[in-house]
Amino acid sequence: ILNVEQSPQSLHVQEGDSTNFTCSFPSSNFYALHWYRWETAKSPEALFVMTLNGDEKKKGRISATLNTKEGYSYLYIKGSQPEDSATYLCASTTSGTYKYIFGTGTRLKVLA
Amino acid sequence: DAGVTQSPTHLIKTRGQQVTLRCSPKSGHDTVSWYQQALGQGPQFIFQYYEEEERQRGNFPDRFSGHQFPNYSSELNVNALLLGDSALYLCASSPLGVTGYTFGSGTRLTVV
User: Fold this and answer.
1) Which of B59, B94, B99 to mutate: most A Cβ within 10 Å?
2) A99 and B58 in contact by Cβ < 8 A?
3) Are A108 and A11 in contact (CB under 8 A)?
4) In a 3-state reduction of DSSP, which class is residue A103?
5) Is B103 on the interface with A (CB under 8 A)?
6) Which of A9, A90, B86, B90 is the most core-located residue (most Cβ within 10 A)?
7) Which of residues 68-87 of B touch A (CB under 8 A)?
8) pLDDT tens digit string along B33-90?
């Protein structure tokens, strides 16, 4: 994998459902993986920064895992709420560079 | 505590014109990065400034230039605008040595 890829591109879930998204990234020279939550007309908001293989982070109902050997991260939302509706972006950074490589995002819509 | 401030929020320019976008970083942040997000794509790295110098540049033509001032604020200049420069331009700041950006809400540039 040369780029950061996210799936699915978009999804609709019912309030109360749990859901998860995938971020695939280049595993060579990996440095960090970032998850952002971006609501329409607002700034992207940092959710997690993960660096170590096997890392798991949690923030309320949202959690994320990281596998640097195979180059993927999962973001989980438990008991989705309408306020979780947003685009979820992931970005990877590699050693020796300052730039973030972003995926195209997963657009989540939670239906009340 | 104000986060990252970008101005203007929207602007419309004509092909061939020049534009300057401005960014004030979050208090305590000395590094500023600029990203371009075209429709349907993830943010693409333009460049990063630290200590008033361009530290790294992405795959953008020389028409894109920038500047960082002693107070850490930054400008992005684009010359000879093309229709394809229409995009959301995001500014992100961070403290040196700390991974993880704080983003502004962006400037929406439309070139007609």
Assistant:
1) B99
2) yes
3) yes
4) coil
5) yes
6) A90
7) none
8) 999 999 999 999 999 999 999 999 999 999 999 999 999 999 999 999 999 999 999 9
Q: Is residue A48 within 8 Å of residue A34, measured between CB atoms?
A: yes
Q: What pLDDT, in 10s, does the model give residues A32-68?
A: 999 999 999 899 999 999 999 999 999 999 999 999 9
CA–CA distance, B21 with A26 (Å, rounded to integer): 32
Q: Do B42 and A102 touch (CB under 8 A)?
A: yes
CB atoms A103 and B100 under 8 Å = no
Alpha-carbon Rg for chain A in angstroms? 14
pLDDT in tens, A59-111: 999 999 999 999 999 999 999 999 999 999 999 999 988 999 999 999 999 99
Instruction: Tell me how far apart the alpha carbons of residues B31 and B27 are, in angstroms, rounded to a whole number.
Output: 11
Comparing alpha-carbon positions, the chain B residue that sits nearest to A47 is: B100
- Bridge partner list, B87: B109
Q: The tokens of B75 are what?
A: 């400008």
For chain B, give the DSSP string: ----EEE-SEEEE-TT--EEEEEEPPTT--EEEEEEE-TTS--EEEEEEETTEEEEE-S--TTEEEEE-TTS-EEEEE-S--GGG-EEEEEEEE-TT----EE---EEEEE-
Q: Which token pair is B96?
A: 């040196």
Residue with tokens 């890392």: A55
Distance between first and last Cα of chain B: 37
